[in-house]
Amino acid sequence: MIDAPALREALGLSHTGARALAHLAFPTIEAAGAHLAPKLGSLTNPERMCGRAEAVDRLARAVRAGERIVVFGDYDADGITAAAVLTAGLRAMGGTVEVELADRFRGGYGFSEAALARVLALAPSLVVTCDCGSTDHERLEGLRRAGVDAIVIDHHQVPPEPLPVHAFLNPHQPGCAFPFKYLASCGLALSVVGGLRTALGVPYDLRDWLDVVAIGTIGDVAPLQSDNRILVRHGLDRVMNSKRPGIAALVGARKVPFAAGDVSFQIAPKLNAPGRLGSPLLALHMLLENDRARAFALVGELEQVQAQRKELDRALRAKIEVAIAQEKLAERTAIVVGEEGWHHGLVGIAAGRITARYGRPTVVLAFENGVGTGSVRGPEGFPLHDALKRCSETLLGFGGHQAAAGVRVAHEQLAAFREAFERATEELMATYVKPEGALRVAYDGRDSLRALANDWLRFEPCGAANAAPLVTFERVEVRQVRLLSKGAYAKLMLRIGNEEVSAWLGETPPNLPREGARVSLDAVPRFDDYRGGGAVDLQVSGAVRAEG
After folding, report:
1. How far apart are CA 330 and CA 355, in angstroms?
2. Cα 191 from Cα 49, distance rounded (Å)
3. Is 362 exposed, middle or buried (CB count within 10 Å of its CB: 0-12, 13-18, 19+)?
4. What are the pLDDT digits (tens) for 392-406?
5. pTM over the 0.85 mark
6. CB of 156 within 8 A of CB of 385?
7. Which of 81, 163, 288, 339 registers the highest number of CB atoms within 10 A of its CB?
8. What is d(CA 244, CA 259) in angstroms, rounded to the nearest whole number?
C-alpha cells in the first residue's frame, strides 16, 4: 500500500486528496495513477462476450446486402443512447436503418405487442433491440414467424428460457465469459459498432460517441467501475466539447467540467423527460441531429418538457406523501402505493425519491382501467429483482434488474402484492448487507479549497458503486443562511480557514444552523459553475452537525 505523502509527491495531489487516494490501497504508484487517469486501452477485450461475434456477422451481412434494419430501443436514457449509437454507426457504414423506441403510452416498456406491430410495419429483415428484449420471448417469436431475424442487446436479468433470436448479447446470460457484467446497453452497443467497423473495414471513430455513452451509463445508474468507469471518464471529458450540436446546446454556457453527478441531474433527466410525458423520440432525434439550428430547437423542446415534468412530479409526490401518511406506510418494511389516475410516466422518479426519504424498498403504481404500471426502487445494493421473483404470482408481469425494476399488477391484487412484497423484503433484509458509506477524510488546513476541487475532478466519475470521497470539515463558522425556491432548498455561507465558500444542503433540513454557529459537515468540493473563475462550492452529504 502506497502512503499519502508518496502519492501526493508523485501525482501532484493535495494533502487531503492524497489521503483519500491512499485509503483505496493501491499497490503501486502506477496503479494509483491509472485510477486517476484510466486509459481506453485498458477496456476488457470484448471477444469473450457471448453473442457478439454472431451479432456483428449478421449486421455486416445486412449492411453489405442493403437489407432494411430496424433498431428498437427502450424509452429511457440508456435505451435512447444505445439506439442512437447503433443507428448512427450503422448509417455511417452504409446501412439502411430505421429506428423506433418503446413508448409508455403505446405498449409500455420493452418490445411489447404494440412495438412489434410498429416494427413489422417498417418491413425489416433484421431487428436489433437495445436495452430490452431479454424477457420478450413472445414478441421475438413473432418476428421469427414473420421471417425477420432478431438481435438482442441488453443488460437486464435473464430468464432461463432461451430466446428465439439470431444473436443475444447480455453479459448476465449463462455461459457468457465476458468478466464485467455491468456494462449499460449503450456500452454494449458501442462494442458492437466497434466489431462492425472491423468486419466491414470502414474507418469510424468510436470515441466520438463516448459522450453519449457516458450520459446513458450515468442515466441508467450503472456501477461506475471497471469498463464503465473508463468509458464514462473519457465521455465526461468530451461532453464539454461534444461534436453533437444537441449536446452542445444542453451544455450551453457551462464554465466548469462535468462530473458524473452533474450529468445525472442536469442532462440525463432531459433525455428521459419526453418519454415520461409522451413520445421519447424527441430525445433520440436530438442526439442524431447534425444540423445546429434544428438540434438547438429540439433542445428547446426538451427544456419545455422537462419543466412540465417537474411541475407534475411535485404534484404527484404530494399525493404520495398523503397516501403514505393516511395508511401509515412509513412504518412498514416496504412501501407500496398506487392510485387510479396517477401519471405512470412519473412513477420511477417518485419511487426513487420516496426510497431516498424513507430508506425502504418502494413501489409506486399508476392505475388505469384496473391495471397498475409501476416502478420499483430500493436502498443501494438491495436485490429488488429477487424480491419481485418471490411475489411474482401476484403480478401480471415484471422486469428490470436488481437496482431498478418495473411491475404490472391488477388492482384487485394490490393488497396481495403489497403483503407478498413486504414479506419478500423482510426475508431478504435478513441477509442484506448495506454497502459501506462513502469514504471520509478530514480536511487538511494546508490545502486550498480550489486544490481540493481539482483533485475531486480527478477522482471522477463518481456515483453508483463508486461514491465520491467526502471531506469532513470540523467546527467551521456559519456566516450566512439562505433559503431558496420558497424555502424548499437551503445553502450556507461558511468560513473555512481564510476562505468563504457556499455549502449546498439540498432540501431544507428541519434544524438549520443559525448564523454565527460552529458546525461540522461532510461534503464533496466542486468548482462552482455559476460563478466560474475557479470558485469552489461544497455539496453537503448528510446532516450538518452543530458544535458547542
Report:
1. 10
2. 10
3. buried
4. 999 999 988 888 899
5. yes
6. no
7. 81
8. 19
Q: For residue 278, how many other CB atoms are within 10 A of its CB? A: 15
Give yes or no: residues 179 and 114 share one domain.
yes
Per-residue pLDDT of 280-306, as tens digits, reads: 999 999 999 999 999 999 999 999 999
The angle, 0 to 180 degrees and rounded to 10, between the axes of the packed helices 52-65 and 185-200 is 60
Domain harbouring 389, CATH code: 3.10.310.30
- Respond yes or no on whether the N-terminal peptide bond of residue 203 is cis (omega within 30° of 0): no
* CA 27/CA 155 separation, integer angstroms: 32
C-alpha cell at 253: 454556457
User: In this structure, are 414 and 530 located in the same domain?
Assistant: no
- Same-domain check for residues 519 and 422: no
| Class of residue 39 by CB neighbours under 10 A (exposed 0-12, middle 13-18, buried 19+) | exposed
C-alpha cell at 65: 446486402
Contact 235, 132 (CB under 8 A): no
**CA dist 345 → 194, 275, 283, 334, 362 (Å):** 34, 7, 15, 22, 16
How many angstroms separate the first and last alpha carbons of the chain? 38
Cβ neighbours of residue 279 closer than 8 Å, sequence gap 6 or more: 101, 103
Give the closest residue to 534 by CA, choosing from 448, 471, 464: 448
Per-residue pLDDT tens digits for 481-522: 999 988 888 999 999 999 999 999 988 888 899 999 999 999
DSSP collapsed to 3 states, 471-495: EEEEEEEEEEEEEECCCCEEEEEEE
pLDDT of 548 over the 70 cut: no
- Whether residue 323 is contained in a domain is answered as no
Query: Can you tell me the distance from the alpha carbon of 169 to that of 56, in angstroms, rounded to the nearest whole number?
Result: 11
Q: Are residues 338 and 276 in the same domain?
A: no
